[in-house]
Specification:
ATP-binding, DUF815, 7-stranded mixed β-sheet, alpha/beta, ATP binding, 46% helix, P-loop_NTPase, 7 strands, ATP-binding protein, 289 residues
């Protein structure tokens, strides 16, 4: 093989390897969109053109919690100090919806006054070990970002909580100033009770072992509980949805059907109310936009 042929072959091999290897992650895309999914395996941020969720006006029965999340998010967008947020509590009460709706509402406020907007970046619970890689990308941008982890919890032998803990602790390689973490969980202490109890039986110092795991939730500056809906709360949510989608149903009939729907499911929550409205809208032939 001549030197020219050898050089040509090496160039082709190099080009092939370059195509196979993804480019290093870049934060440039953060300035083009408001919401992203972090794909740890590829090391890229994938834009989300339309975030699934509901407007703040449809989140009824959680005004105190909404005010807290909105104030914290607003402070962060305006360049002030703010806290990491943990929303925990009953299923279907709008924890993740509150996060997404608050960021969207604050961005709308910021745009109205030509202020800086936030980027919402969702990271999956089983990809928390990639947090250092994601944070390395976010350190290269000045845009303020909220990392969102939905349905956060940990099981036995799960060490991913250490990755999150190191970021929340704010060490040398921890969370940069332009990043906050918002998370939701159905568990108050992010792990099942039997896991906490197992620590007591297997650790040399049980109290220290429990503290190591349970204290993770304490590292969120705002720790906000959302509880199950009362019947009045549930009906208020249903009526708000019905008004939003302009469903022509008399109030008494709407409430009666909504209670029947909840009774059949053995639950009252914002999610149950949304499911009822979806079924009712389809029955009436009214599309939900």
């Amino acid at each position: 093989m001549t030197d020219h042929a050898l050089l040509s072959a090496l160039e082709r091999i190099a080009a092939s390897l370059e195509r196979m290897s993804p480019p290093p992650p870049s934060a440039d895309i953060l300035h083009k969109h408001d919401a992203f999914l972090w794909q740890a395996a590829l090391g890229v941020l994938t834009p989300v053109e339309k975030v699934s969720g509901v407007p703040l006006s449809l989140l009824q029965g959680v005004k105190r919690q909404m005010d807290q999340v909105m104030a914290n998010t607003r402070h962060f967008a305006e360049g002030f100090s703010a806290n990491n947020v943990m929303l925990w509590g009953a299923r279907g009460m709008g924890k993740s919806s509150l996060v997404k709706a608050s960021v969207a509402a604050v961005n709308e406020e910021q745009r109205a006054k030509s202020g800086g907007t936030l980027a919402l970046i969702e990271i999956q619970r089983d990809e928390l070990s990639s947090l250092p890689k994601l944070l390395a990308v976010l350190r290269t941008t000045r845009r303020r970002c909220i990392l969102f982890c939905d349905d956060l919890s940990f099981e036995s032998q799960d060490a991913d909580y250490k990755s999150l803990k190191s970021v929340l602790d704010g060490g040398i390689g921890g969370r940069p100033e332009n990043v906050l973490i918002y998370a939701t969980s159905n568990r108050r202490h992010l792990m099942p009770r039997d896991m906490i109890e197992n620590e007591t039986g297997s650790a040399i110092n049980p109290s220290e072992a429990i503290e190591e795991k349970v204290s993770l939730s304490d590292r969120f500056g705002l720790w906000i509980g959302l509880y199950g809906a009362t019947q009045d709360d549930y009906l208020t949510i249903v009526e708000a949805y019905a008004a939003y989608y302009k469903l022509p149903v008399p109030r008494d009939e709407l409430r009666r059907k909504a209670l029947q729907w909840a009774m059949a499911r053995g639950s009252r929550s914002g999610r149950v109310a949304s499911q009822f409205i979806s079924d009712l809208a389809a029955e009436l032939g009214i599309p939900q936009q």
